[in-house]
Amino acid sequence: MSRSHLRTVRDHIRWAVSQFHREGLFFGHGTENAWDDARQLVLGALHLPWEVADAYLDCRLEEDEIEHLRDLLRRRIEERIPTAYLVGEAMFCGLPFLVDERVLVPRSPIAELIAEQFQPWLPKQPARILDLCTGSGCIGIACAYAFEQAEVVLADISFEALEVANQNIERHGLEERVYTVQGDGYDGLPGQRFDLIVSNPPYVDAEDFAGMPAEYQHEPALGLACGDDGLDLVRRLLAQAADHLSEHGVLVIEVGNSQVHVEALYPEVDFTWLDFEQGGHGVFLLAASQCREHQALFKTRLRP
User: Fold this and answer.
1) Which band of pLDDT confidence, cut at 50, 70 and 90, is reported for residue 151?
2) What is the pLDDT of residues 15-52, one digit of tens each?
């Protein structure tokens, strides 16, 4: 990277795009192409907002800023570290979240459901919401913005992930109605019921996990892989859902490419598979009545 030619913000974004293409980087952690990834990295490293005025792009950088960018761009290319980890922040539902390698990078299509307040499936405003397998807390915290009167519980098995989630709760000033619970699945929530349970659990099957791009190796495996068919945890979440939903509650779970395994495992169940205008797939919805109706079936499909 030549000191004499790369001087402005725009220079560094352009150079990064070219290098990202040349090196064959993967884009799937909040961005979908080299331009957005480069822009996120350069602007984030310089503490500039995504919607920065165009005039800023032609500002010349100080030498220490150029050195900092040089290091981050090198790490993105050579080590395949996702950009969100390099800048320590990711956007979800238009909100900023602190992220590092203790949690997955936020990218769930569930963001679109939150923006629409889960309509038309929620019969009324939820009083209690559970974000199960919360990671950074992005889904639950975004739900707290969407439903301003709701109490929101962020649950995860990982103490390290919950440290990040608690930082995000504090960052967004939601300590009075959003809190974390540690536990495996519903284990930390005995007797508790919710009007809305949302979960983006680990669901990657063994075949997909083995073939994932290098960028995913920086994310916690605990948040990605979950057995041969990816459903080891999803089986348990379904089997116990009826015990934690209110009478007219709703369950939403993302399973991505493991949708085919869900449909094969539970052919008797009429899952509602949701469509997304902004991309994404493999998210199903069940009403509490369906969870109660099929609870015995769900329990028979648990792994021994």
Assistant:
1) very high
2) 999 999 999 999 988 888 999 999 999 999 999 988 88
Are 19 and 124 found together in one domain? Answer: no
pTM: 0.93
In this structure, what CATH number is given to the domain that contains residue 67?
A: 1.10.8
Helix (H/G/I), strand (E/B), else coil: 96: strand
Report the C-alpha dihedral over residues 226, 227, 229, 230, rounded to 10 degrees. 0
| One-letter amino acid of 98 | L
Which of 31, 63, 87 represents a domain boundary (last residue)?
A: 87
Question: Are 47 and 113 contained in the same domain?
Answer: no
CA distance 26 to 214: 8
| 75-118 pLDDT tens trace | 999 999 999 999 999 999 999 999 999 999 999 999 999 999 99
Are 120 and 38 within one domain? no
> Domain with 199 in it: what CATH number?
3.40.50.150
Sheet with 194-199, strands from edge to edge, namely 178-182, 151-156, 128-132, 194-199, 245-254, 283-287, 272-273
**Residue 151 belongs to some domain of the structure:** yes
List of E strands, the chain: 89-92, 95-98, 128-132, 151-156, 178-182, 194-199, 245-254, 272-273, 283-287
User: Do 81 and 133 fall into the same domain?
Assistant: no
Read off the pLDDT of each residue in 171-198 and give the average, rounded to a whole number. Answer: 97
By residue count, the chain amounts to 304
Task: List the domain range (segments joined by +) for residue 247.
Answer: 100-300
Residue 202 three-state SS: coil
pLDDT digits (tens, 9 = 90+) for 242-282: 999 999 999 999 999 999 999 999 999 999 999 999 888 99
Long-range contacts of 171-176 (CB under 8 A, 24+ apart): 171/96, 171/97, 171/98, 172/95, 172/141, 172/144, 172/145, 174/141, 174/144
Out of 65, 87, 109, pick the residue that ends a domain: 87
